[in-house]
Design a protein that fits this description.
single chain, about 130 residues, alpha+beta, YaeB-like fold, 5 strands, globular
């Protein structure tokens, strides 16, 4: 993978759970959001540190899941319950943030199946991918 990516936050991610994070955490969310974007620009480091997990890979596209904590909360990434789903396009060097959520935002049951369903239903390009 290349060492520098353009980061795109999808309208779907903005409309749904990012809006909730912004309302709940205000300035702390803005700091967190900037940090997430900066980290993603050099995603190779996140893979080396096992922060990013590849869920599906096919050709030059990868769908990955990552955990994060909100700035100032003093809670670890894992314990926070906050996650985000990205797609990496190695041809265009773009990373799209598809979904940002807290695990309680999703219905009870299998968390992975829940977010995969959201991605399939809201991103036509990934409908048959995951």
């Amino acid at each position: 993978m290349s060492s520098r990516y353009k980061i795109i936050i999808t309208p779907f991610a903005e409309k749904y759970y990012i809006k909730k994070f912004n309302k709940k955490y205000k300035n702390a969310w803005m700091v967190t959001r900037e940090a997430l974007v900066k980290q993603l620009q050099n995603i190779d480091v996140l893979f080396k540190r096992s922060i990013a997990e590849i869920i599906v890979a096919s050709g030059n596209i990868k769908i990955c899941k990552l955990e994060f904590s909100v700035a100032g909360t003093r809670v670890s990434r894992h314990a926070s319950g906050n996650r985000y789903i990205i797609s990496i396009n190695e041809i265009t060097n773009e990373i799209s943030i598809l979904l940002v959520y807290h695990k309680n935002d999703l219905k009870k049951g299998n968390e992975t199946e829940q977010w995969k369903k959201l991605i399939r239903n809201n991103f036509v390009e990934y409908k048959n991918f995951i």
